[in-house]
Amino acid sequence: MTDAFDHVDQLCAWLADTDISLLELTSPTRTMRLLNDGSRVAVETIDGTEGAHQPALLVRALAPGIFLQQHPLRDRAIAAIGDDIAADASLGLLQIGPLLLPVSAPLTGTVTNVLARHGTVVGYGTPLFELQPLGDEGEA
Amino acid sequence: MIAQQPRISLLGTTALLFEAPGETTLETQRRVWALAERVTRLPDVQEAVPGMNNLMIAFAEPPRALEAMERRLVELWTAVEPLPSEGRCLDLPVVYGGEGGPHLADVVAHTGMSVDDIVAIHSAPVYTVYALGSHPGYCYLGGMDLRIATPRRKVPVLKIPRGAVSIGGDQTGVSASDGPSGWNTIGSTQVVFFDVARTPPALLAPGDRVRFTVERVVR
Amino acid sequence: MIVVLSAGALATVQDLGRSGSLNLGVGWSGAMDPLALAAGNILLRNEENAAAIEIPVFPFRVRFARSTVFAVTGADCAPRLDDVPVLPWWAQRAEAGQVLSLSVPKTATWQASRAYLCVAGGIEVPLVLGSRSTQLRGAFGGHEGRPLQDGDTVPIADPGRRPRSSFGLVPPGLVLACEADGLAAVRVLPAAEYECFTPASHDALWSTPWKITPQSNRYGYRLAGDELKPVRPLELRSHGIVPGVIQVPHGGQPIIQMRDAQPSGGYPKIGTVIEADLWRLGQAPIGSSIRFVQCSWDQALDARAETRRWLKNARRLVELHCSQGGGGDD
Questions:
Q1: Residue A47 pLDDT level (bands cut at 50, 70, 90)
Q2: What are the φ and ψ backbone dihedral angles of B30, each rounded to 5 degrees?
Q3: Which of B58, B136, B200 lies nearest to residue C137, judging by beta carbons?
Q4: Which residue has the higher pLDDT, C161 or C210?
Q5: Who contacts A100 (Cβ-Cβ below 8 Å, separation ≥6)?
Q6: Which of B73, B171, C6, C126 has its CA 20 to 30 A from that of B163?
């Protein structure tokens, strides 16, 4: 396979058979997201120039595992849309067998989107959260 | 219910209970000690704990082939030579009655004997330490005269002090530390039965013998 | 060093227990939930048997006198480090002077009653007869042979392996769950006097709930339920018993021997909770009901092996994670 973008239909068909909820393909010029909601796979294309207008930051899975929005002993999400999160604080968890690893905020920001479903298997690099950085411009 | 064959039963996956056949005797107990010494050397065994004519065997690793282990135990039981009961003989001075013996009157009431008779009968035999159990340093003694046997108390006492000499059913013993007890306390001794700073920490071991000597009788 | 600010009641230092001294009359003691203790130690790269503080009554508060990595396993008691929430079953770094507060356990997904405060290196109290567990009867082991009190200072041993912070373990209670009719269940092997009980007693044992009464503690759980009756009165000779043994005294209400139980007894035994399920019993709260499930020797050993496998796998993945430089450095 030379270019994944040539095989989107094939990838969609494969994805539909898994419980991976999101697959993102990135090239220097564009990004394509395959979103699997369990019943069908939708394709979303973002070209490079459009991406530059989006200040929101994607927080990705640093390892393959099961994405958890809440701790297994808790019934409340660690971070929900609208929550302000400090840099290095946990947004969610990745479960690898008995191990729980934090999904940490790379900088202080507001959670604007949760991109994976609680309890689904995610791959390395899968975007999990969208974070709007809380910067100096807010003080103007 | 006196079995003719040894009886082996499970205590979960944690231990086995081996019960020797026949009446409770010192001869049988000496074989229990020998079996304990022998099975401790088996690889699956963590510790072996003599009771009154029985032996609890705690597993280091519970064996898949349980029947093989049970057969082995029965074989060992028939093969072991009774260990001698030639331990030390210790005198334990006891103050009978009074503050340290609050239930002496209950033993009087139950047996119909006088305080002097009870004290004389209790202090006459040389008792053999059959086993340690119940709490650190506590000894199960064999050899009490059944004439002073008195049932356990209906309501246990929440705290009887260390050194309490008591009768429960047809057994007698001495508490090694403060704690609850359902037995009838008839006297007290100052002897310290257990001290972790000592090696070994327990004063007495199975096979040792004790005699209660009358220090005083408080009426 | 840990300074106890608010000891609650009956918090004790425990490791996995003191074996080898039963024949001196010394029981095993040890953690009521050995799985939570072992898992906490694995998380902190301690030996599984390192000592921790078992906490049954809340609130409980301590101050760390020096920086350390700790984990609170067992019941989720909403840990807070100063004012910041900390996840349960999570390796967390505390700086010198920080205060850890634990509150009454909340039940969201797992009903449990005891928490374990584990520290990297383990609680450093002297080994007595091979163990650091508190032996209350006889007053030795643990911290001065007694429950912790406000103002106590408890030393921490130097960690052998460099601990990592900022990661956790899935509580094994969620994975190794066992239920019957919606109640926590423990598996039982029949004991010596099982056949001496009436058929109605057997039915009651296996098919009715058993309530854990307030007279339950580390010594034993006194249960309330249908009366268990022997066919005829039984007189037994004193013999060794272990945690998990279900004794039936004259009243017909069973008592399960727990970690501080005396190591010998003479009441009829109807069954014994298998070793693999003792942790679940140790976490069952007072007032809750449990069920007994009959099992075979092979099933009991399989359950034991499953627990061992979980711990071994947890150890392997924790070590892998730490060797890859994952988590916060400490």
A1: low
A2: -65, -30
A3: B136
A4: C210
A5: A68, A71, A72, A93, A94, C87, C89, C90, C167, C168, C169, C170
A6: C126
A60 and A48, same structural domain? no
- Same domain, yes or no, for A43 and A60? no
Query: How does DSSP assign B156-218, residue by residue?
Result: -EEEE-TTEEEEEBTEEEE-SSSEEE-SEEEEE-----B-TTSSSSBS--TT-EEEEEEEEEE
Give the model confidence (pLDDT) of C236-265 as tens digits: 889 999 999 999 988 899 999 999 999 998
Assess whether A74 and A126 both reside in one domain. Answer: yes
Residues 58-97 of C with CB under 8 A from B: none
String of DSSP letters for C75-99: S----EETTEE--TTEEEEE-TT-E
CATH topology of domain B7-79: Gyrase A; domain 2 (3.30.1360)
Residues 6+ apart with CB under 8 A from B78: none
Chains in touch with C (≥3 Cβ pairs < 8 A): A, B
| End residue of a domain, out of A38, A54, A70 | A54
**pLDDT tens digits along B110-156:** 999 999 999 999 999 999 999 999 999 999 998 999 999 999 888 87
pLDDT digits (tens, 9 = 90+) for A50-97: 444 447 899 999 999 999 999 999 999 999 999 999 999 999 999 999
- Neighbours of A, requiring at least 3 CB pairs below 8 Å, are C
DSSP string over C162-218: ---BSEEE--HHHHS--EETTEEEEEEEE-TTGGGB-HHHHHHHHHS-EEE-SS-SS
A115 reaches C (C-beta below 8 A) = no
Report which of residues A134 and A69 the model is more confident about. Answer: A69
The CATH number of domain B89-218 is 3.30.750.24: no
Closest-CA residue of A relative to C74 is A73
Give the closest residue to B8 by CA, choosing from B55, B64, B61, B75.
B55
Tell me, yes or no, whether chains B and A touch by having 3 or more C-beta pairs under 8 A: no
pLDDT in the model for residue C177: 86
Our count of domains for chain A comes to 2
Q: What is the pLDDT along chain B (219 residues), one digit of tens a residue?
A: 456 789 999 999 999 999 999 988 999 999 999 999 999 999 999 999 999 999 999 999 999 999 999 999 999 999 999 998 778 999 999 999 999 999 999 999 999 999 999 999 999 999 999 999 999 999 999 899 999 999 988 887 888 999 999 999 888 999 999 988 889 999 999 999 999 999 999 999 999 999 999 999 998
Same domain, A19 and A65: no
Query: Residues of CATH 3.30.1360.40 domain(s) within chain B?
Result: 7-79
Chains B and C touch (3+ CB pairs under 8 A): yes
Name the domain boundary from A11, A34, A54: A54
What are the domain boundaries of chain C?
2-169+311-323, 179-295
Predicted-assembly ipTM surpassing the 0.85 threshold: yes
Domain span at residue A47 reads 1-54
- What is the location of CATH 2.40.100.10 in chain B? 89-218
The answer on A62 and A109 residing in a single domain is yes
Contacts of A69 in chain C (CB under 8 A): none
Residue B105 neighbours by CB distance under 10 Å:
13
